[in-house]
Target: Peptidase
Amino acid sequence: MSSSHSYPIGAPGQKWSDKEKAVWLKQVTIKRSYQDEVVKKLTPLGERFDLLQYGALSYDSEKYPLFALKTRNWDSNKPTVLITGGVHGYETSGVHGAIQFVATEADNYSDTFNIIVAPCVSPWGYETINRWNPNAVDPNRSFYENSPSEESAGLMALVASLGCDILAHIDLHETTDTDELEFRPALAARDGIEYVKGMIPDGFYLVGDTDNPQDEFQKATIESVRKVTHIAPPDGEGKIIGEAITQEGVINYPTKKLGLCSGLTNCTYGTTTEVYPDSPLVNDQECNDAQVAAVTGALDYIIKLL
Model:
């Protein structure tokens, strides 16, 4: 269904030029502190894990260093797991769920896995509560060679520097009301296309890979999360965000073709979590808990197969 919604920047049907992107950037404001809310939580974790700075964003290299945490008993004989959060900086539980997993659960899995966690891939997006970076580029559509996103390129370089295969990658995200109120209308305006209103599902769901769906892995992850929060139901057409469900709470995307973070490796087990923090049925802590439950459920499933 098309919408009469008119975005305040740009002309309908015309892609943004640098002029419109500059107008958009000028109205973006800082709303919270990456240093206070994220970096200060990472520093004490450096006592138990290797805290690595793998880069910094050129927008402000002092303000936006990029960090990852690694388990210390790294062993080339163990499978390696990648956990990412904050690829879309505005998706809060992705960031804080990743940090909570490191703080409370990572030690329990470090004998079995090498684990590396990049909890806030897009710190400028975190501070401005934004899906894009300052260049109006979506990092989560930019995981490919010669990426236009510093955030994506930095994470890809970090993963390449590990020099090992990734067995599993869990990418922690949210779907929020602002997706339809701001971000999808802005995307349509930027690309000069008509905005078609969608529906935000109330609950948790997963996005698997069309080319490597791993249905049992996705199911185990959903079952773990179910203990913490409710699973998103499909709409009347059996879909979630326009995609047909493959099982309860699971849809698939062609992750590599779309340049998604979850497609940046050739992992055997990959998934993207989606929490709905605007639901009246949850609070912020429950959203973080759901992200942790997704990671632990995924890892518990893999352990049974090793």
User: Anything to note?
Assistant: The chain has a mean pLDDT of 97. The radius of gyration is 19 Å. The chain has nine helices and ten strands. The chain has one domain: 18-305.
